[in-house]
């Protein structure tokens, strides 16, 4: 059973997310909070596998909260669920330690798909967010990526799905998801300040 924590100040959405997650086999919401101030002290006790979080929250912002959460629980997988599609928010969230980013209008099935994708080692993102991330890094020299990762990134930038990339490179979809996760991790960790200066 994958333990999930929700951090969302809009109560109606938080209840909706809780219902979606708890109805899905293999997942259970073990805590839901309206702020990082109330969530962070409980995290070591709850030991969640996944956290779904907003980024515009009262008090500690979602970006700062993600950083503090990753310091407490380095292995936790964090997915942002936000109304914001601004590239700065997306980039800051990924740099802080989020592995996925969904928009709040994604719908129930997208949330379920994101959980399952994460469980299989993927980096779930709304299509428009994934495209934005890829475009924002397209001009960067990807010396820190392997040749295969660069091939995957190039195909992603052309709007291809994981399945079509897998077909084209004769790999499994899960392997593509792993490459994508590695790409996101490498791009957010290396030369972060330089990327912020260059891209934003």
In short:
This protein is α/β, with parallel strands linked by helices and 200 residues long.
From the structure above, extract its key features.
200 residues; 5 strands; 55% helix; alpha/beta; Rossmann fold
Task: Explain what the structure shows.
- This protein has helices at residues 11-23, 36-39, 43-46, 62-72, 87-96, 108-119, 127-137, 147-157, 162-169, 173-189, 192-199, and strands spanning 2-7, 27-33, 50-53, 77-82, 100-103.
- The model is unreliable at 189-200 (pLDDT under 50).
- It is globular and about 45 Å long.
- It has a five-stranded parallel β-sheet, sandwiched between helices.
- Helix 5 (87-96) crosses helix 10, helix 8 crosses helix 10 (173-189) and helix 9 (162-169) crosses helix 10 (173-189).
- The protein is α/β, with parallel strands linked by helices and 200 residues long.
- It has one domain (2-199): Response regulator (Rossmann fold, 3-Layer(aba) Sandwich).
- Strand 1 (2-7), helix 1 and strand 2 form a beta-alpha-beta unit.
Detail the topology: elements first, then pairings.
Elements: E1 2-7, H1 11-23, E2 27-33, H2 36-39, H3 43-46, E3 50-53, H4 62-72, E4 77-82, H5 87-96, E5 100-103, H6 108-119, H7 127-137, H8 147-157, H9 162-169, H10 173-189, H11 192-199
Parallel strand pairs: 1-2, 1-3, 3-4, 4-5
Helix pairs in contact: 4-5, 5-10, 8-10, 9-10
Quick one: how many beta strands? 5
CATH class: Alpha Beta
Separate helix tally: 11
Determine Rg (CA atoms, Å): 16 Å
């Amino acid at each position: 059973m994958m333990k999930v924590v929700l951090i969302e100040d809009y109560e109606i959405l938080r209840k909706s997310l809780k219902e979606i997650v708890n109805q899905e086999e293999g997942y259970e919401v073990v805590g839901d909070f309206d702020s990082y101030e109330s969530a962070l002290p409980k995290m070591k006790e709850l030991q969640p596998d996944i956290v779904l979080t907003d980024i515009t929250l009262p008090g500690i912002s979602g970006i700062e909260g993600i950083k503090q959460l990753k310091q407490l629980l380095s292995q936790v997988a964090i997915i942002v669920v936000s109304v914001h599609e601004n590239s700065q928010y997306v980039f800051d969230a990924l740099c802080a330690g989020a592995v996925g980013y969904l928009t709040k209008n994604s719908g129930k099935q997208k949330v379920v798909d994101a959980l399952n994708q994460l469980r299989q080692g993927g980096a779930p993102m709304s299509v428009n967010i994934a495209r934005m991330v890829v475009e924002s890094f397209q001009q960067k020299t990807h010396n820190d990526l392997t040749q295969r990762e660069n091939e995957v990134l190039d195909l992603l930038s052309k709007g291809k799905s994981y399945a079509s990339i897998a077909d084209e490179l004769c790999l499994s979809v899960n392997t593509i998801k792993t490459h994508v996760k590695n790409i996101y991790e490498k791009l957010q960790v290396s030369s972060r300040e330089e990327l912020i200066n260059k891209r934003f």
